[in-house]
Amino acid sequence: MGIGSVKRPERVAVIGVGILGACVGWNLSRQGAQVVFIDAGRPGEGVTNWSFSWVNASNKTVRKSYFDLNVAGMAAHRELAGVIGPESWWYPSGHLRWTDDPAAQAKLLKSAELLDSWGCRVEAYTGAEVRRHLEPALTVPGEVPVVFYPDEAWVHGRHLVGRLVGEAVASGAELRSGTAVSDIGTGADGSIRTVALADGSRLDVDIVVNAAGPRASRVAGLIARHLPMRREPGVITRIGCAQVPVHRVMHAPHVEIRPDGDASVVLHSREIDALIDTGEEPAQLARLLHESARNVVPELGNSRIAQTRVAFRPIPADGFPSVGAVPSVPGYYEAVSHSGITLGPVIGRMLASEILSGRSDEMLADFRPERFVS
């Protein structure tokens, strides 16, 4: 190859530096692309920091291809922990689920059977066994069936984003935080040429990755693309504790609970989310979450509510990810998905590969952006 024919590295603007943007940018940077991370706030501090951050496939049975993608996501996390080290972000302690409603119980056990038939590791316990061997602080009744998914995990999203962006920047990537994208410019052929920022600067780029989470629809609008999104707010509360009384993610009756490091527990509930639009104050939603959690883990009665946030989930209209190129705008790609925590590392790897090689992974076939036509 003559010296004049060496292709210069692609210059990629990654818009949105949550878990998906960080994973895409880190993968691109490792493979020689010139990456500019752009975030209106600070990396990892948006919806990534305010999600339940549970790495799973057990909740993804609605479509087999989506389940398979999430299983690949779990495997990609384990691989990533091997590459960058698991410290401060990776907690593969499994996931417990039980319910106090007989109809929901039947559904839970049926779902566990299906997952087992799909090759997912599932273990069945009674409440008494769980208290004896796994979570002594729980009040779960002794005879209640509890399902345990040992391969699931939780992730400290902000720490992981910080690690990935830090590594990319150390190897030459650029970070523009605290400034939003105000415009995306295209050439005469319709391909991506520039990104303009709210601080007045303009970047020459070949490629844009829209990983803007809840703002992804607005970013898509800058190239006159219609990306329909659901409006789905969720409330997350962090509880400060002197000692964290639980060891893993759990879906208990009416509340979801997980550890969040050495002095904090995270709470979420779909039932409480349903109250957001009734106008309840976040502080009241937090009190309701705390009360539900105390019923399951009485020790949390001594804890205090530290932080609460209502965040909008980045969910495309049909509930599935939108990942890959938009053929009508050469150089424009999307990485927009719910379950970004589970899917970040696998989507990051697959999309970086697609951007640099032009070939899309078969596993993403059901999740291509062109299914949403303008």
Detailed description of the structure:
The protein is globular. Residues 1-5 have low confidence and may be disordered. It is 30% helix and 25% strand. It has helices at residues 19-30, 64-84, 102-117, 127-133, 157-170, 216-221, 270-273, 282-296, 340-357, and strands at 11-15, 34-39, 54-55, 90-91, 95-97, 123-126, 145-149, 153-155, 174-177, 181-186, 192-197, 202-204, 207-210, 233-240, 249-252, 255-259, 264-268, 304-312, 322-325, 332-336. The strands form 4 sheets. Strands 6-7-5-15-16-17-14-18 form an 8-stranded mixed beta sheet, with helices on both faces. A hairpin with a 4-residue loop joins strand 16 (255-259) and strand 17. With 374 residues, it is of the alpha+beta class.
Short précis:
The protein is α+β, with helices and mostly antiparallel strands.
Task: Please write out the topology.
Layout: E1 11-15, H1 19-30, E2 34-39, E3 54-55, H2 64-84, E4 90-91, E5 95-97, H3 102-117, E6 123-126, H4 127-133, E7 145-149, E8 153-155, H5 157-170, E9 174-177, E10 181-186, E11 192-197, E12 202-204, E13 207-210, H6 216-221, E14 233-240, E15 249-252, E16 255-259, E17 264-268, H7 270-273, H8 282-296, E18 304-312, E19 322-325, E20 332-336, H9 340-357
Parallel strand pairs: 1-2, 1-13, 2-9, 5-15, 13-20
Antiparallel strand pairs: 3-8, 4-8, 5-7, 6-7, 10-11, 11-12, 14-17, 14-18, 15-16, 16-17, 19-20
